[in-house]
Amino acid sequence: MTRSWVPVPDDSDFPVHNLPYGVFSRAGDQPRAGVALGDFVVDVSRLDLPHAADFATTTLNAFMARGSGAWRAVRSRLTELLTDQTHRHSVAPHLIPRAEVALHLPFEVADYVDFYASEHHATNLGRIFRPAQEPLTANWKHLPIGYHGRAGTVVVSGTPVVRPRGQHRAAGGAGPSFGPSQRLDIEAEVGFVVGTPSALGAPVPGSAFADHVFGVVLVNDWSARDIQAWEYVPLGPFLGKSFATSVSPWVVPLDALAAARVTPHQEPTPLPYLTEGRRWGLDITMEVRLNGHVISRPPYGTAYWTPDQQLAHMTANGASLRTGDLYASGTISGPRRDQRGSLIELTWNGSEPLDLPDGSRRAFLLDGDTVTISAVARGADGTRLGFGDVTGTIQPAG
Ligand SMILES: O=C(O)/C=C/C(=O)CC(=O)CC(=O)O
Ligand SMILES: [Ca+2]
Ligand SMILES: [Mg+2]
């Protein structure tokens, strides 16, 4: 079993098999790239690594754009530096306690797409939003449904989320009114970060997934259900989801997740452009906490559509990829009630409120509520890999 000479607590999210990338700063310093290991951030711009100059910048974009050969070379050299005792003297001065740093948005977000990959989630939302119809639309098992979101409002974990104002219509048929959302919700998702761009007009096959996707983050796609329910027909989500989308500060390299791959069963078999190569489903178990209380454990491994298929679909028309594109899985819900990835599902649109251990009750989020999503996956050698947290606290409407 590979071990680092850096002491790593057994329950750490960040063993040496993980080595996720982020952007950090200490008081008074310029932000720069770092890698998480145990309770430390490794100041990688100071190490003897290929492309070290890329790490002295405020985003990971330059390094992400270099492609999978460079990602692999750096990961392999970094593993050597952190596991071989002979490098201890030169590397140890560049370990900074994580408690001393601020973490920033790790990459400049180019385009943002959100999918709808979980059959359990889509079925639940269909039942809630469209009770008179079949819960899954006729296209659902033929293509990964998605929409383009607002890249400029993707924020890093810890950024406060201001309750949005918008138009909504109370049940009972009165006209719409404008004001703070009364149905503010979360969506627990897994996000994929594109490194290598592609040319306009050239579709990217799913088999090229690992050449283009740099790594994985956790996503909370904050959603105002009252705004959404009134505005979404017929063009889909707009202001109900564009006010903030939070991401975790660490990008877990795809190579760290090779042991977590799964292939979901799909019936009917999708069209050939969606089945090239082997699937990249990932067995990642998320945990959602509301004010510290666990309210759900959504299993990403149960998602119907995989991120390689989403990539192939997103570019099937020739749309190009840019470094920094972020696409999210869609809300993940498992078959069980305690695996649902949103409050609208957990409380069935507010009709079955949650009783929290602190004695309070929730249908949707209240001002001051803090939601934190974390996750674990299996790494090489059977280790446990974490993703760090994505957290946000609701502030009153401005
Ligand atoms: O079914 C609907 O009309 C709406 C579904 C969603 O709100 C989900 C969405 O944003 C995509 C996802 O996260 O799965
Ligand atoms: Ca979503
Ligand atoms: Mg959003």
UniProtKB/TrEMBL annotation:
Organism, scientific name: Streptomyces cupreus
Protein origin, superkingdom: Bacteria
Example of a GO biological process term: L-phenylalanine catabolic process
UniProt keyword list: Calcium, Hydrolase, Magnesium, Metal-binding, Phenylalanine catabolism, Tyrosine catabolism
Protein name: fumarylacetoacetase
Binding site for Ca(2+): 114, 187, 189, 221
Residues annotated as binding substrate: 116, 130, 228, 232, 331
Domain Fumarylacetoacetase N-terminal: 17-106
Gene3D superfamilies membership: Fumarylacetoacetase, N-terminal domain, Fumarylacetoacetase-like, C-terminal domain
Co-factor(s): Mg(2+); Ca(2+)
Pathway in which the depicted protein is active: Amino-acid degradation; L-phenylalanine degradation; acetoacetate and fumarate from L-phenylalanine: step 6/6
Keyword rRNA-binding: no
Name of the encoding gene: fahA
Domain Fumarylacetoacetase-like C-terminal, chain residue ranges per copy: 113-388
EC numbers on record: 3.7.1.2
